[in-house]
Amino acid sequence: MRRGEWLSIPRLLLATVLGAQLCCALTLSTYFGPEDKARLKSLFTSPRALADVPSAHYAAFGLGLLGEKITNPQDFCKVLKTVDQKNVESLYHAASGSKALGNCPLDIPEGKATLQAALKEDSSVVQLYHAVLALKALGASVDSAKVSQLLLAALKKDDSMANLGYAFHVASVLGGNLSPFTDRIEDAIVQADEVGNELLQFEGGLSVTATILSGVYRLSETAKKAPNV
């Protein structure tokens, strides 16, 4: 593994596996043999797993997908508590990592204020994704109607494939009228490119493809509709 790949590879891998699980109801065993899973476990329990907040988040989440017990949750929690409470993305990783651990409460009042302040008109889709999912992971309330309008406005500025995927994930945790988002599912799916006459992939590669597909299934489940895939 080359230097600098620790953050990108686990994120890509976990998003792909999650997308496959949600879309096809398959297990990790379908994709990885014992050696593959042992290699992943070694990666997620290595010192690099505790290098920073995002690494701790991805490693904790990865071990959960593998069905492995985290033997040193206190070490993971200690790293997550170093979160920058003024940084929305860092707060997202800390909150999501805390949720993955299951017993790592975060006392971050300033962080919650930062996340609520991020729900504003000029926020991008990605910023809304980080803020909303972090608030949900922390058990904080979110104004679904407000977020829905902010999300639609952000998509008008940039409705790239990646942003549509993130928007589907955000909408999946909201209440109220989800039609403006479920109506975009078919628009997104038809933009997939054929690879090798066998596979469909979205522009941006596997991580974007997994984000879109897992978002479609999560949103469809929330809206109680069959996924249009």
From TrEMBL:
Major location (coarse): endoplasmic reticulum
Assembly: Component of the oligosaccharyltransferase (OST) complex. OST exists in two different complex forms which contain common core subunits RPN1, RPN2, OST48, OST4, DAD1 and TMEM258, either STT3A or STT3B as catalytic subunits, and form-specific accessory subunits. STT3A complex assembly occurs through the formation of 3 subcomplexes. Subcomplex 1 contains RPN1 and TMEM258, subcomplex 2 contains the STT3A-specific subunits STT3A, DC2/OSTC, and KCP2 as well as the core subunit OST4, and subcomplex 3 contains RPN2, DAD1, and OST48.
Name assigned to this protein: Dolichyl-diphosphooligosaccharide--protein glycosyltransferase subunit 2
Record's keyword annotation contains Ribonucleoprotein: no
UniProt topology in membrane: Multi-pass membrane protein
UniProt function note: Subunit of the oligosaccharyl transferase (OST) complex that catalyzes the initial transfer of a defined glycan (Glc(3)Man(9)GlcNAc(2) in eukaryotes) from the lipid carrier dolichol-pyrophosphate to an asparagine residue within an Asn-X-Ser/Thr consensus motif in nascent polypeptide chains, the first step in protein N-glycosylation. N-glycosylation occurs cotranslationally and the complex associates with the Sec61 complex at the channel-forming translocon complex that mediates protein translocation across the endoplasmic reticulum (ER). All subunits are required for a maximal enzyme activity.
Coiled coil spans: none
Organism: Amblyomma variegatum (Tropical bont tick)
